[in-house]
Amino acid sequence: MYTTYPNSFFLSLLDPCQLDRIFSFCSFPNHLTMGSPHAEASLVDKVCQIYTKISKLETLKPSKDVNSLFTELVVACIPPSSINVATLPQTIQETRSKLIKLCGEAEGHLEAHFSTLLASFSNPLHHLDVFPYYNNYLKLSQLEFDILNRHYSSDQPDTVVVPKRVAFIGSGPLPLTSIVLASHHLKNTEFHNYDIDHSANSMASCLVSPDPDLSQRMFFHSTDIMEVTDELNKYDVVFLAALVGMDINDKVKVIEHLAKYMAPGAVLMLRSAHGARAFLYPVVEPEDLQGFEVLDIFHPQDEVINSVVIARKDSLSLEVDHDDQDHHHKIGNGSFLPSTCKYCDFQAFNNPLNKMNIIEDLAMEE
Prior knowledge:
The protein is an alpha/beta fold and 366 residues long.
């Protein structure tokens, strides 16, 4: 069975025992203190060596060699680090860019492998635990739901309001984030999954179609999100997968497109990276989110790999209830609470991460 890979789908899905060993194994010697030039140079050299080995593989489909190299990459990048990849030489930047793309390709192969396996069951959603990290994905989805729920609530006391329509961009052949959120947290919400790869959507659809509930609430669109316009304003929440736009310039173009067409007040959730983890994922900075109000950014310093970013679509046309002293911004039947601690870490409000060992996303996420 396959273990860890550096992607939103499976990078951060190490169990606590594995994580303890990794943090112990990766502790820097006394003369290489965390954040020192020597430690950073050693890390960069290690990552480049692993990249060279990965780039020589004949295929990135799941195998012993693929698994070993990506696990080695996780071991190198998971410890907290103050390294700023943006300051590295251009040659290293190019290597990092290529490495992130290889990570994305490996993720696609792993998703397709398990999607095909699950499709062999008469009702695939009853056998999601075949995927070795399904329980971790349950924890990830709980985390993302908690973060979303903080910023999407009712202006009526003791009333819970949930988004009616959610879009997930870059859902892939095994859309576990959408499936788990729809099955456990947003049980009356429509999920619209977008992926440019028609074959990926076909595999994903086969998993959902036998289920009498999700088959009526989950839809798949095979299209380039850059060609989707007015339809985007129908969604209360949009999730952007970590590896949609693996080059930051491409990701910014997607974000700008979403800012143009998303509904006023709608929420955007996406994943980023910080420190050495930026060798594995694109980094999204607040200035990349033009047209959005950044509500919170959380940079984990433990086994959680992805940074979590949540933002709200700006608009001068937001309806403001002046009779409400909190001045909630409204969309549909819900309201989005203004951030009380922009860019705060979630420790300030009963951080759900404290109750978890792991994040996602993976996304798959992040």
